[in-house]
Specification:
This protein is α+β, with helices and mostly antiparallel strands and 124 residues long. It has a domain of 75 residues: 2-Layer Sandwich (Alpha-Beta Plaits), CATH 3.30.70. It has 2 helices and 5 strands, in the order H-E-H-E-E-E-E. The strands form 2 sheets. The chain has a 3-stranded antiparallel beta sheet. Strands 3-4 form a two-stranded antiparallel sheet. The termini are far apart.
Length: 124
């Protein structure tokens, strides 16, 4: 097996994002996953298919640049600027009829009927 063919798909746990935007995208069968920056679209598709037993029809990727943040090492220290890490997200479209359960909604239980009040005790 060639060195480039081997990927660490098994080592990377994948979990869909549970945000308002991703919830709206689910109506179009699109799910959002945070992935490693080094992963290709083909690797992402294989990983999602293997993990959730679904069929992937389309993968779009997005890299969000890290924001600038200020830091200081004390009251009189010279403040500096650093950057947060860049993040990569994959927008995965599934085949019609497939879905992934992201938002766990508890099953609604029917309210239990109150027991009938016992008849008043008879006075002797």
């Amino acid at each position: 097996m060639a060195k480039n063919d081997k990927t660490n798909i098994e080592l990377h746990l994948i979990e869909p994002r549970a945000t308002e935007k991703s919830y709206l995208e689910q109506t179009n069968r699109i799910y959002v996953f945070p992935v490693k920056k080094s992963m290709s679209k083909q690797e992402i598709a294989k990983m999602v298919e293997k993990e959730f037993n679904v069929t992937v029809t389309d993968v779009r990727t997005l890299i969000r640049n890290g924001k600038k943040t200020k830091f200081s090492k004390g009251k009189h220290a010279y403040p500096g600027i650093t950057h947060r890490q860049d993040k990569k997200f994959a927008y995965v479209r599934l085949k019609k009829g497939d879905s992934i359960k992201v938002f766990d909604e508890p099953e609604k239980e029917e309210p239990k009927a109150k027991p009938a009040k016992s008849a008043k005790k008879e006075d002797k």
